[in-house]
User: Fold this.
Amino acid sequence: MSLLEDLTWRYATKKMNGERISADKLNYILEAARLAPSSSGLQPYKILVISDPALLAKIREVSFNQSQVTDCSHLLVFVAWDGYSEERITRVFNYTMDQRGLPYQTMADYKQNLWAMYEPLGPEWHAQHAAKQSYIAFAMAIAAAAEQRVDATPIEGFSADQLDTLLQLKGSGYRSAVLLPLGYRQESEDWLVKMKKVRTPMEEFASELTLADLTNTEDQASAGQPASADQ
Assistant:
């Protein structure tokens, strides 16, 4: 199977059947997420893997009663740093240098410049940026699940504040970002399973842009002429 075939096969499963996925498949999906790129290699996130029925039931209560939370095999909770700090960045960079057999000073200038850029942006920007990084790993997990023919349902519909309290994340340095139930579809009860996959047409989704295109638009605007999309 090709990646495009896998992505065509997948959909946001609305009803799961409770069947367990194998440890091999779960570990494959987690490894794909772990190998995802992140800004400056910081990986300011981690994944909580939950299969305990009692805890899943509690999570469902703060996730708008979405049945996939309790009907899945495993729930992946992507949690991201609640902020950057020089100490956190240093710890990651030092670990990287240890793994590469290089002195810590190798990335000293880069670290200094990075923190000088991040520090004034404030804690809320930090938290949002870290959460955005977790979505890259999240997308990798979705693609890996499709490759393994494991269903997955992206879920942003939950109370982050209540979930953070439930999972005792407050004060831990992490915030919940997004949920990904993994399992298998219950076709007889899933209204979406037979529906056609619909996406924006490619000619609207992707278009080539050059500096000349921008220059022409600016010239037309300065001349008081409406910019045309058909040039």
